[in-house]
């Protein structure tokens, strides 16, 4: 359940943010195509998790993380179309995030490796890319080394 006091404080924080803090999803996020502007902020400096929150609808938010922290062998090819749409010129322009699901029970949380969020750190343009031609799934255990039987 969303705490509306926190949502209201987010609106106040958003008003103080500069335009460069906004991440722009020109196509929206799948399922939320009407929302284009998001704020990405680290939830706690001691943890690797970020909140990706819609700038115009504070109740829409995603828990995201750098997937390479949990799956160092994670890799995929970024199509020329996506590179062009996001104006990506080099790997240094890119930061990758994946959505974490089921975070209420963190031991059973999963990571969507099939649909990473690709962010151009220079332009702040982003896109959630669906990796149709991969073996990745939408629900990989966040903790890949967890014993069998404890998977989500």
Provide key terms for this protein.
single chain, 152 residues, alpha+beta, seven-stranded mixed beta barrel, 27% strand, disordered C terminus
Quick take:
The chain is α+β, with helices and mostly antiparallel strands. It has helices spanning 4-16, 80-85; strands spanning 22-25, 37-42, 49-54, 61-65, 94-101, 110-111, 117-120, 125-128, 140-141.
Structure, explained:
There is one protein chain. The protein has 152 residues and is of the alpha+beta class. It has two helices and nine strands, in the order αββββαβββββ. Strand 2 (37-42) and strand 3 (49-54) form a beta hairpin. It is globular, with a radius of gyration of 16 Å. It starts with a helix and ends in an 11-residue tail after the last strand.
Strand order of the largest sheet: 1-2-3-4-5-7-8
Question: Strand content of the residues, in percent?
Answer: 25-35%
Radius of gyration: 16 Å
Please, what is the average pLDDT? 85
The span between the termini is: 21 Å
SSE string: HEEEEHEEEEE
Oligomer: single chain
Number-wise, the strands total 9
The helical percent reads 10-25%
Secondary-structure topology with pairs:
Layout: H1 4-16, E1 22-25, E2 37-42, E3 49-54, E4 61-65, H2 80-85, E5 94-101, E6 110-111, E7 117-120, E8 125-128, E9 140-141
Parallel strand pairs: 1-8
Antiparallel strand pairs: 1-2, 2-3, 3-4, 4-5, 5-6, 5-7, 6-9, 7-8
